Amino acid sequence: MTAPTLAGRIKAQGLALGFDLVGIAAVRTPRHGAAFAEWLRRERHGEMAYLARTAEQRLYPGRFLPWARSIVAVALNYNTPFARDAAEGGLRGWISRYAWGDDYHGVMQTKLDRLLAFVRAEVGAAVQGRVFVDAGPVLDRDIGARAGIGWFGKNTNLLSPKIGSFFVLGELFLSLPLPPDRPVHDRCGQCRLCLDACPTHAFAGPHVLDARKCISYLTIELKGPIPRPLRPRMGTHIFGCDVCQDVCPYNAKCRPTHETAFEPRRDFHAPELIPLLRLTEAGFKARFRGSPILRAKRRGFLRSVCVALGNLGRVEAVPPLAEALAGDPEPLVRAHAAWALGRIGGRDAAAALDGALGRERDAAAAEEIRLAVEATRSVSGPGTPARPDPGRAR
Question: 36 vs 20, 63, 165, 207, CA distance in Å?
Answer without folding.
Answer: 27, 18, 20, 11
